[in-house]
Design goal:
The protein has seven helices and eight strands; from the N terminus they run ααββββααββαααββ. The chain has a two-stranded antiparallel ribbon. It has a two-stranded antiparallel ribbon with strand order 3-4. Helix 5 packs parallel to helix 7. The longest helix has 18 residues.
């Protein structure tokens, strides 16, 4: 995800340079170099996803089990092609641990689940929690990858777990009761607020403004069973 961040910001620097009448080529070259290096060193063909990182020292091993953040930040930074993005979303569904969202009043129309942020062991604070914001950003990544129904199911699961099943009704917080140790210890943090807004506006309704280019893109990500929606 650090490489993805740097690729994105070099592309944005190139865009700004052009608007300001400066030479954009150094930034474009750096972005291309980062993208090529990511595919050379981190792309895993069998898994269909980028690895978490590659060791700098020792055996220089590639660590295959990427966290959710390395999925959604890489997609959000426009690194993968559409085919790669679809493959990465599929890898998240195959490899990341799922936690069922169940309880009184939870709809029984389908299986609702959330992801832990990693499958790393042993459990440790901040690296394999169950976090509303992480899951909503992953849902946004699913929408960006074209996985509309999976995106909506994950987003609804996140809202059910935190806003409905939580001990603070209607809350958009951080942790939720599915976390094995911390539970809702961080329910007052605002981690989920910004990405919840993005997931609903940019993902579900597909409204994405690009003010620098003077363009408003509309790519609705409504679930296949919906007949209409109002924003």
């Amino acid at each position: 995800y650090a490489s993805a961040y740097n690729l994105y910001h070099n592309r944005m620097a190139a865009k700004l340079a052009k608007l300001l009448g400066h030479d954009a080529r150094p930034y474009e070259a750096e972005a291309d170099a980062i993208g090529n290096a990511m595919r050379h060193y981190l792309w895993q063909k069998e898994e269909g996803a980028f690895a978490e990182y590659k060791d700098l020292l020792g055996l220089q091993l590639v660590h295959p089990s990427a966290g959710l953040w390395s999925f959604y930040h890489t997609i959000d930074s426009d690194v993968p092609t559409p085919r790669e993005a679809w493959s990465m979303a599929s890898a998240v569904e195959r490899f990341n641990p799922r936690l069922p969202v169940t309880g009184p009043g939870v709809p029984a129309d389908r299986r609702y689940e959330m992801f832990s942020t990693t499958n790393w062991m042993p459990y440790s604070w901040t690296i394999n929690n169950v976090v509303m914001g992480e899951n909503l950003h992953t849902a946004l990544g699913f929408w960006q990858a074209g996985r509309v129904d999976a995106a909506y199911r994950l987003a609804k699961s996140s809202l059910l777990a935190s806003m409905y099943m939580g001990i603070s009704p209607g809350n958009v917080g951080s942790m939720n009761h599915l976390d094995v140790y911390r539970r809702e210890a961080q329910r007052d943090f605002a981690h989920g607020s910004g990405v919840m807004a993005r997931a609903i506006v940019e993902g579900l309704f597909g409204i994405e403004p690009d003010a620098l280019s003077g363009v408003l893109e509309l790519r609705p990500g409504l679930p296949s069973q919906w007949q209409r929606a109002t924003l």
